Amino acid sequence: MLINPENPGNRTHTGLARSLSGEVRKFVDEMIIPNESRLAQSGDDGSRLQSELAEEARCAGLWGLFYPLSHGGKIASLEDYLVIAEQEGRTEYSPAILGSHSALDAHMLLKFGTDEIRKNFLEPMASGEAIPSYGMTEPGHGGSFPALITTSAYLSNGHWIINGRKWFVGNTDRATFVTVLARTAAKDTALPKALSMIVVPTDSPGFKVERQITMMGRSLGQGEISFTEVEVPEHNLLGGSGSGMDLMGQRLGIGRLLRSMNWVGLAQRCFDLMGARINSERGRTARLPEKQLVRQHVVNVYQAIASARELIRVAARSVDAQRPNNVEINIAKIAASQALCLASDSAVQLYGAEGISDLTPLSGIYRVARTSRILDGTDESLISSTGRRLISFYEEHDTYHFA
Questions:
Q1: How crowded is residue 344: how many other Cβ atoms within 10 Å of its Cβ?
Q2: Over the stretch 291-311, which tens digit does the pLDDT of each residue have?
Q3: Where are the domains of the chain?
Q4: 132-238 CATH choice from 3.40.50.1000, 2.40.110.10, 1.10.510.10, 2.40.50.150
């Protein structure tokens, strides 16, 4: 499994996580949230501010907390990291500023990368000199169907030659390398052995950012990229040839949990904003605390957040124990997405017209919430695959034992 924690149940380690979560919360509240409007701006000002805040996070010892311990990370257990990730997630800009957006890539490169990959990509990334991206989905193909992948790579004189196209690739506006999922075997090869992951520097001849893709009218770093006879060394292969499906599965599982942790933090932010609105002078004038439907909003959001947190914790614990449970991971992702969607929608409703304007952070959070039902697997695909797995379980067992 991807994560290999050191003493995940150690009480001192848990205490460190809680201490760091307090420091992260303070940094987010004092340094990032007050600058959200500037960070939302496209262009040099927003990018420059993001870089400045990332450097301040480094100086404060709060950058890359879930990186591998060998490369500057401080937390090795997913369950412990939950309390930190929630605080990082209270603003949509924290993952890039605090380095949590690249922690998954760091673990992938460390475990599956060659010595050359670790030296050329992991070490620069850990020092803040490199930015990763990941290319899986292709134009015209559903992201959940790897059998439809047409991007190809073949070996020639010790180099991989890559051709194809990917879209909805994160960090395309600033990435220095991309891990691309490509077909490396003949068409008649069984899918589990047909795909591989290859690390490609974005300054390679033949690599091109075709366009940036806005999400609900806003730039979130997503884009479309192409490979035309892109040539990279053979040692840029991540894992073994034909191991792409296995690596994709591991990446998706951990990625879903990491995103879910951030989404719960963002839902908590909405919950706090709801409380502030209800008890504000305007809220009391409108008698919001006395209205039963307002109370129902509050209870529903609380229940959704509390449920998602515990589901994530259970799933994270299974990963820490080296026994990842895809049912638990998928249900946790669905629950976190639903909690964020409900929290953002309820908060917008209580704020009224202000909630859908740029006068509050809620319009931006609402966009993130809506994408959460699609990123890392649509609700429909996760529900279908998880339901199938649960039904199949009862073909051989009488009782399902919850964790």
A1: 30
A2: 999 999 999 999 999 999 999
A3: 11-113, 132-238, 246-393
A4: 2.40.110.10
